[in-house]
Design a protein that fits this description.
The complex is a heterodimer of chains A (583) and B (80).
Chain A lengths: L2 H10 L5 E7 L6 H14 L3 E7 L5 H7 L7 E5 L2 H4 L13 H23 L6 E5 L18 H18 L4 E3 L2 H7 L8 H7 L5 H15 L7 E4 L10 H4 L13 H14 L4 E7 L2 H8 L14 E4 L3 H12 L6 E5 L2 H10 L4 E4 L5 H15 L6 H26 L1 H6 L4 E5 L6 H9 L12 H8 L4 E10 L2 E14 L2 E9 L8 H13 L3 E4 L8 H11 L7 E4 H7 L6 E5 L8
Parallel strand pairs in A: 1-2, 1-3, 3-4, 4-5, 6-7, 6-9, 7-8, 9-10, 11-17, 14-15
Antiparallel strand pairs in A: 11-12, 12-13, 13-14, 15-16
Helix pairs in contact in A: 1-2, 2-9, 3-5, 5-6, 11-15, 13-14
Chain B lengths: L2 H13 L21 H15 L14 H9 L6
Helix pairs in contact in B: 1-2, 1-3
Classes of the chains: A alpha/beta (583), B mainly alpha (80).
């Protein structure tokens, strides 16, 4: 993005959109960073109006301290060496003598401690994106050509300690150095003349690229939930059906290390809760045998389901999506055949189709980085660890449901030995906001919240937030639903309600409403329903209760609910009712 | 306005939102609201992008009116 384009984009941002306030805490003249950051945020979050506040010149800790008075929703800190000590920049006349080096190192350590303390003291819920120094140190060490020494190491040590300390604060994230180095080469970042004459150290290109990284951290895209992979010449080298399951390879000796790196990447993502499935044109027995090999770098236990057949890949993908119960736009498909990718893409709009480059290792590395970009998660929750097992259970559940429902659905559900718990003291659990922000199908209105917005919402008025967990004889599903509403007289006004698609078909939604009517003794519940492109399952649920397709705000009276109700065989527990979402 | 002046006028309109197009030809910091030192830098960066040139920062203080910038663009200083 050029400066001209950024200015024009910023002019085009509608003032009617909901504002997203960001403090840009930088020690230099923030002019171009302000322009580019606003433009990049507008690009990352269409539908919002990014508003950038700049802070105090050469005083990042002071700018952060001021956030206590007037908290923004996010903070961006493009930190440079000159913010750590002016003598580490180019505008100061402070000495670089041997005698002063020790003082510079000591002063830098103190300033970084002050900075981390200011970050740790920021109000909860504010997202903070930090870039560690991107510009070169000035030539202050007076060492022979190309040599580093102790003072420089000590500066980097202090910087690392700062990053570890500040990064311990939730919602505090750092720009990745490797990625920034690849898109904005070190030699193209600094404009020394502009730095000295105007206090603008960045070239416009670097200001834009750094802003793009900060914006991506302040408003990250929801990660893709699953990867569907081909096998032959993708997961491993060779065609298992031709050379035999014991001859396919993924190692250095067989010149197939790229496939080993691919398996390791899948294993790393699977260990962080990303689903992995197989869609392969193969004999099922051949695939089964190959997946039993003990030297696989991604355990076959981490793969579910496996679709090995001679039908179209798109049909295999369709069955996998049904098993996972997620939509194509949450999933990536990797194959070495452009034809298979095209066939899958045509049948599944939104599916991200990536080519496995069997010969080109450089492109192969880009593929692995792309998989991390699309699927990587900042934090791993308890539910991430449970997801795969609960999907396996779900498959058994669905199979038994089909049989059971045909015979006696009430008896079948009663035999699940299911327990539901509603916890009213978990409103600030990150899983609660994660569920609200990533659930599509059973979602009251599609509203998404930043952590700051969520905190503000739940701390307003008599808000009740129920975090709902479920388990049955097939195992625990973990925290799978959230309902949030405001108690107003004898009405509960629900503004958010989501239920994970993993937990459908168990009457959990009925149990939740029944329990809330009973717990709060309200005569009616009102729901801020808004139809979205994906929330058909929730719309159908309400239609079954009120007898017509809802179109806007839904009013559900207690008597009406009970008249439409069905057998509710699970046990229900209510926890921490008095906590009521307040901290 | 010739083509060069029209392109320069567009740069002014990008940086100074709502500027009276008719007044651009005689624009100076005293006639344009918001034309301060910060806006000068932004304007010159936008001009650099539009004309694919690099303006020597030493000359910023001299480029303080539409006619002076036109003159600079028509007769850029020789590269050192």
């Amino acid at each position: 993005v050029t400066l001209t384009e950024a200015i024009r984009r910023n002019e085009a941002i509608s003032k009617d959109l909901s504002p997203f306030s960001v403090v840009l805490a930088c020690g230099f003249t923030p002019m171009h960073m302000e322009t580019f950051l606003q433009a990049r945020l507008a690009e990352a979050m269409p539908g919002r109006q990014p508003l950038i506040r700049t802070g105090l010149y050469e005083d990042i800790p002071g700018t952060l301290d001021a956030c206590q008075e007037n908290p923004p929703q996010a903070v961006a800190i493009p930190l440079e060496w000159s913010d750590i000590d002016p003598r580490l920049g180019f505008r100061s006349s402070g000495a670089w003598t041997q005698q002063s080096l020790e003082d510079i190192v000591t002063a830098a350590r103190h300033q970084l401690s002050r900075l981390s303390a200011a970050i740790l003291a920021l109000p909860k819920g504010i997202r903070v994106a930090i870039s560690l120094p991107t510009l070169p140190l000035p030539p202050l060490f007076a060492l022979p050509e190309g040599q580093s020494g102790a003072p420089e190491f000590l500066l980097h040590q202090s910087l690392t300690e700062f990053a570890l300390a500040a990064g311990a604060r939730p919602q505090t994230v750092f720009v990745g150095k490797q990625r920034l180095d690849s898109i904005s080469p070190a030699s193209s970042r600094h404009d020394l003349k502009s730095d000295c004459l105007l206090g603008l150290p960045y070239t416009t290109a670097h200001a834009d690229l750094l802003s793009s990284q900060l914006a991506a951290l302040l408003h990250p895209r929801p990660p893709r939930k699953g990867i569907i992979t081909d096998l032959d010449n993708t997961f491993w080298k060779g065609i298992a059906g031709e050379i035999g399951p014991d001859q396919v390879s993924w190692d250095l000796q067989s010149k197939s290390q790229l496939h080993a790196l691919y398996q390791k990447t899948l294993a790393a993502l699977a260990s962080r809760g990303v689903l992995v499935a197989i869609a392969s044109k193969n004999e099922a027995s051949v695939v089964e045998e190959a997946l039993r090999r003990p030297d696989l770098l991604l355990s076959s236990n981490s793969i579910f389901p496996v679709e090995a057949n001679w039908g179209p890949k798109s049909a295999s993908i369709e069955r996998i999506l049904q098993t996972w119960n997620i939509s194509a736009d949450s999933v990536i498909f990797v194959d070495d055949s452009p034809l298979e990718l095209a066939e899958a893409a045509a049948s599944h709009p939104g599916l991200e189709c990536l080519l496995f480059p069997t010969k080109d290792y450089s492109l192969g590395l880009k593929l692995l980085e792309r998989l991390n970009d699309l699927c990587g998660k900042e934090t791993v929750t308890e539910e991430d660890a449970l997801r795969l097992e609960s999907l396996r259970s779900n498959a058994s559940f669905a199979s038994l449901t089909r049989q059971g429902e045909e015979a006696n659905p009430d008896a079948f559900l009663a035999g699940l030995d299911a327990h539901i718990s509603l916890d009213f003291g978990a409103a600030e659990d990150p899983r609660v906001l994660e569920l609200i922000n990533k659930t599509n199908q059973f979602n009251l209105n599609g509203a998404r919240y930043s952590e700051a917005e969520w905190r503000e919402r739940i701390l307003t008025g008599a808000v009740q937030v129920a975090a709902i967990s479920y388990q049955d004889k097939f195992g625990p599903l973990g925290r799978i639903a959230v309902l949030a509403g405001t108690l107003n007289g004898d009405t509960l006004e629900v503004f958010s309600w989501v239920l994970s698609c993993r937990a459908f078909s168990r009457r959990i939604e009925h149990h939740v409403l029944s329990t809330l009517f009973q717990t709060f003794g309200v005569a009616e519940m009102q729901f801020d329903f808004l139809a979205t492109a994906k929330n058909g399952p929730l719309r159908d649920f309400f239609a079954s209760l009120i007898g017509s397709t809802p179109e806007g705000r839904i009013v559900l009276r207690q008597q009406q609910f009970h008249e439409a109700s069905i057998l509710l065989p699970h046990t229900v527990r209510v926890d921490r009712l008095n906590a009521a979402g307040k901290s | 306005m010739d083509e060069l002046e029209q392109r320069l006028s567009n740069c002014f309109q990008t940086v100074f939102t709502g500027i009276d197009a008719a007044a651009i030809g005689a624009a100076t910091p005293s006639t344009v609201a918001g034309w301060d030192s910060v806006a000068s830098i932004k304007l010159l960066n936008v001009i650099e992008e539009e004309f694919q040139i690099e303006i020597d920062l030493d000359q910023i203080s001299e480029l303080d009116s539409f006619p002076r910038i036109v003159e600079y663009l028509r007769n850029p200083p020789a590269a050192v």
